[in-house]
Amino acid sequence: MRLVRLAFPLVALAGLVSCGDPVPPTPQAAFFVNFSDTGASCPQGSHQSELGVVSAIARTGVVVDGTNNTQIRCTVSGSGTFKIDARATQVDSLTLNVPSISPTATQAAPATGNVAFLSAETAGNQYSAPSETPCQFWFQQGTPQSVDAGKVWLTFQCPQVIDGNGNQCRITESFALFENCSQ
After folding, report:
1. Alpha carbon distance, N-terminus to C-terminus of the chain
2. Angle at CA 91, nearest 5°, toward 151 and 130?
3. Is the distance from CB of 128 to CB of 143 less than 8 angstroms?
4. What distances in angstroms separate CA 131 from CA 85, 158, 173, one per listed residue?
5. Which contiguous run of DSSP H or E holds residue 96?
6. What is the pLDDT of residues 55-104, one digit of tens each?
């Protein structure tokens, strides 16, 4: 009888634990950034920065949040049009803020938004696009790039990015992928 009294609360407790929502998958990301020296007003040299391995057509390595000191926070929400708020940081850091992007965005008709980027080569100085010259975001035709609730893989460029000292550089054709994001 004593065993039955002990077993009942354990079974009830196990039932409560299994009734909760499933644990969401851990966010993961990859990026490739082409940071470009524009001349005298850009003291940083041109360089490339990567987290994982991603291009316009291939995603051969994504990094999971929490591995190798990586922090990934992302939200890709909406249906029809989507809002992106995403950040991936390891040694280098990339933040994307796109208020509205359609799955049909092209290089000829891109969505606009902001990018913030810093790397070891920028000496820890963060560069971001001024509001009057936003970054452009699109999906390359004939590639698997796309957007949906909780995930995005896109191409972007920023004609101008500025650090806190007024130095002006740019980001040429670059790629980002975020998955398992909040919706």
Report:
1. 49
2. 65
3. no
4. 16, 11, 19
5. strand 93-101
6. 999 999 999 999 999 999 999 999 999 999 999 999 999 999 999 999 99
CB-based contact 31:53 (threshold 8 Å) = no
Dihedral angle, C-alpha 100, 98, 42, 173, nearest 10 °: -80
- Residue type for 55, please? S
Identify the CA nearest to 172 among candidates 84, 107, 99, 102.
Answer: 107
Predicted model pTM: 0.86
Burial class (CB in 10 A: 0-12, 13-18, 19+), 127: buried
CB 82 within 8 A of CB 147: yes
The answer to whether residues 110 and 26 touch, using CB atoms and an 8 Å cutoff, is no
**Token couple for 157:** 């460029």
Token representation of residue 35: 């940071």
pLDDT value of position 11:
44
CB 72 within 8 A of CB 29: yes
